[in-house]
Amino acid sequence: MRKIKKRLSILLCILLCVVFTAGCSSEEYKNDTSTKVPFSWRNATVYFALTDRFLDGDSSNNHSYGRELDANGKEYANYKQQPATFHGGDIKGLTQKIKDGYFTDLGVNAIWITSPFEQIHGWIGGVGFRHYPYHGYYALDYTSLDANVGTKEQFKEFVETAHKNGIRVVLDVVLNHAGYATLKDMDEYGFGKLNDGWKDYYYGDPKSAKGENDETFIDKSSKEAWAKWWGPQWVRSSKGYAGYTGEESGPDQEICLSGLPDFKTETENDPGIPALWKTKWTKEGRYDQEVNKLKNYFSTSGKKPTVSNYLVKEVSDWVREYGIDGFRCDTAKHVNLETWKALKEASTEALRDWKKANPDKKVDDSEFWMTGEVWDHGVQKDAYFDNGFDSLINFQFQKALVDIKDIDGIYSDYADKINSDTSFDMLSYISSHDTTLYNREDLINGGTGLLLVPGAAQIFYGDETARPLAFEDCAYEDQKLRGDMNWNSINKTVLSHWQKLGRFRRAHLAVGAGEHAKISDSPYTFSRIYKQGNIEDKVVCVIGANSKEKTEINVSTVFKDGTKVRDAYTGKTAKVKNGKVKFTSDKNGVILVEEEK
Fold this sequence. Notes:
Layout: H1 2-22, E1 45-49, H2 51-54, H3 91-99, H4 102-105, E2 110-113, E3 117-119, E4 124-125, E5 130-131, E6 139-145, H5 152-164, E7 168-173, H6 183-189, E8 193-194, H7 198-202, H8 211-215, E9 218-219, H9 223-226, E10 235-236, E11 262-263, H10 275-283, H11 287-301, H12 307-322, E12 326-329, H13 337-357, E13 369-372, E14 391-394, H14 396-400, H15 408-418, E15 426-429, H16 443-451, E16 456-460, H17 492-507, H18 509-513, E17 515-520, E18 524-532, E19 535-543, E20 551-554, E21 564-567, E22 573-575, E23 580-583, E24 590-595
Parallel strand pairs: 1-2, 1-16, 2-7, 7-12, 12-13, 13-14, 14-15, 15-16
Antiparallel strand pairs: 3-6, 4-5, 8-9, 10-11, 17-18, 18-19, 19-24, 20-23, 21-22, 21-24
Helix pairs in contact: 3-5, 12-13, 16-17
């Protein structure tokens, strides 16, 4: 009798399991992002994290090089509340979030971080605030990791952790310009000449920090003193430093953007090692080591020692050492195309070598990828794609995504141009650190539009959590876009929506790289089908469905009768009958039809 009862109990458990599995609720369903799926940069979801503003994982590095410490080495009390100081975000914080599954849950398969190279140590005056290089665009030394970002060991762990989780790493790279000459750097490295009283100003009230006030403490008259900086053979400068020439207007590849020292990447002569690097490397006890590396590189590669080739060598070394998967190239139109092509070739070779030496640490065998910022560029192919670029940032999508109901014209145009040419791609975004943030009240539709876009998509940190504008009283508009990640005030409704779409996009190569076809206007329904070699993927997407009734969807051009399909948004399933299926969307009106396998 006991045996019979035991058997009945087992059968009942089995029956219950079958019932609950068959009736799995939408809350229990989740795309399995651990599953290996084909990857293409044409379908990539690239998360752009402004490292310093993302997450402080190691507070011990927050004041590297004396940043935001007073003259006595004491921390300024409110330094994280200032618009352009370092706020503490670092590579350890990013690693932590990868381990937590944050990016996996979002469907992200590439992370673009701000330039990690060592930045100028000091600040320049803003308009009543101290402006540091927290964004990574004021380089000092490409051979070193900035200490605010972390240590080399932490950086290596970041890359390896990303790769283990199927996430590629993209670095922001700036070859157009170096960082400004700050009062602190002038003092630390002995270049230029400082006027008396500079320390009182530098460590004084931040409200007095202004560009014109900086100038009063800089003597620009001595060629000998300013030769100890980069040297006029390396950069042009519009600041009037003795021995340098340069203007803030003129040809794109010769101007000093915002008064920054412009690298002479077009020159063919050997500029020698810049005096600034000589001083710095000597102080750090590695001058001979770095010189020998450079000599070996030029002798073995056969390349001429030019400004361009020095920079290409130093930057591509990061690929060779860490296995970096791609670069986002800043201010691309202000650098000659030959330099970009050389960087791509050197980095491609470096990544191949790294993958050969580290077969167990690579994500896959994808080639090195390069995208570029060409201001206001839209979806058109030009000379950049013949000179190293696989993709360019699409400035037009943010402007075009005004009404989700009118998006088919955009999708059709992008798919026709991008997915008919394997040597052409665009990286679309809806928010940026340089332009604007997408309407914070419409991030459901914004996320839908972005994550279903043909070609690659870029998420700007905090769009998925409805991160608000910051520093709204700041005179610099771009500072308002770069607030700290809102970990304590996440909009969970927005995040959940972005996660569902992101995971769907990651699971389906067809979303970004497939052929697009409109099925219906109301509700707007389209298919994406990808066929290449032995890889085939297909989906049907609905935007604007009525959540109060079932939506009948014509899937006859995509799925055969009898095919069991699933709405990846809610997890509900159906079987195709007479070329159609019916699903009820949730309140966001999105239905994502995939074949259940």
